[in-house]
Amino acid sequence: MLQRVLGFVKTQTTIRYSKLECASSAAMVGLTDQYIVPYAVAMRASEGQVGLLTSIPNLVAACTLLGVPRLVRRLGSRKAVLLTVVFLHALVWLPVLLVPILFPSQMILSLFVFAILLEVLSDVADTSWNSILADVVPKNRINHYFSMRGIFQGVVTLAAALVAGYVLHAFPSGTFVAFGVIFFLAMGFRLASVWFLTQVREPRLQLPDDPSYGFWAFAQEVGRSSVGRLILLVGLMTLAATVAAPFYAVYVLRDLHFSPTLYSVFVGVGYLATLVSLNPWGRLADRIGNMPVVLITALLAPLGPLLWLVSSDPLYLVLVQAFSSVAWAGFSLAAANYIFRASSPQKKLHFIAYFNVLSLLGQAGGPLLGSWFASALPPIVTGANLLGVFLASGALRLGIALAFIPFMVESIRIELPVPRGFRPVAQYAVYHAGILARVRRHRLHLVRQGAQRETLYWAGQPLRWRGFRVCRDCVTPSWMLRVRRWPSGRG
Hints:
Blueprint: H1 2-32, H2 36-42, H3 47-65, H4 68-75, H5 78-97, H6 99-102, H7 107-136, H8 142-170, H9 175-198, H10 215-221, H11 226-244, H12 247-255, H13 260-288, H14 290-300, H15 303-307, H16 314-342, H17 348-376, H18 386-408, E1 410-415, E2 427-431, E3 438-443, E4 445-449, E5 453-458, E6 461-463, E7 482-486
Parallel strand pairs: 1-3
Antiparallel strand pairs: 1-2, 2-7, 4-5, 5-6
Helix pairs in contact: 1-8, 1-9, 3-7, 3-17, 5-7, 5-9, 7-17, 8-9, 8-13, 8-16, 11-16, 11-17, 11-18, 13-14, 13-16, 14-16, 14-18, 17-18
């Protein structure tokens, strides 16, 4: 009993400090995330150099993340890796703000090197930290915790971005001085994160028994694991989404001639739609499960770029931006939470790392593919060749979603022995997210509990439900959204 109480206290302490760390890291992101490219532009970087600055760090970080599980195994602690890389990440901001002084003749190259370091250290830290949080937060609270964390993080990030914009406005004649102030503040917030992280408790580390288990072993079993298929789905959907993502701003500013104020409204509405929708998506996932939310939003996501082809009215496009942001927020939140909940403890760190790897590869490859589409596809409307890119992005998203749904969603035909007290029931039909797909056989048994309650067991694990809604986020492929008794009628 005492051990349970102490464990509960340590868990609550870790969650409390995780909120403080969330605030400090979000402030750092808000101060810097949207201002590295303007910093390069102030150094007179070309368009090609800016493109490399946004893509190459993601590629390098993706390759680096493949070694995170091995590094954690060698050190024996995720927290040790986390504290080390977060401290180094904070220190790198110092040479970044001093680039114009230390490297006046090689500013772009120096910034390029430091941007790679920042991206690598940030992604390694995120992988280790998310793995710890996924073990600390109780499974029945993961959806609520990460949805509220996302809202809090977004609000702090937005506030910090506004502060950074004010600093740039306050130093109109000293641009590098303004960037120096911004990056110095970011370094301070990141150092605060280090102290908050020292106060968290790391649960006992569990890794696969086979030390050689790595990305290639994961790739070989990806088709047999619901988590593996989901990671692949997220990577491909990210690739399809980023085909068009860099060109929305170009289209509205260059082709539609949005004013800076209207563009700010356009961006702000999408950002606010994301924040407002996170909590409802989390509550919906608590009711029906994360996987159904993933599948629903995977079918909604292709509509975003396709709706851009309908009209160029500013109000209409603002609404489309809000819709796209809501759909993508639900997809990202539910996919991450499913991986946190459904991964086995031994492979959770590996799955989180490979989830980030494929996402980063998608973020790096999507803009390159979009650039090729922009030059190769004929304009759908005269003078608006970027609409072809949006069409290609929507078609890719839709094709990927439709290709994966039969493998992520199953209709299971179940043969049941009939316990005493039940009239014979030939079979149960299981529906996922309202979609009837493949039929597979599984052996289950039915146990009566009380006068009106039953429990289905699969591989010895109970599938609980209210009425006939069953099992959310099971580790096995037997997760279900709704069970209907057939042919006896609806349950």
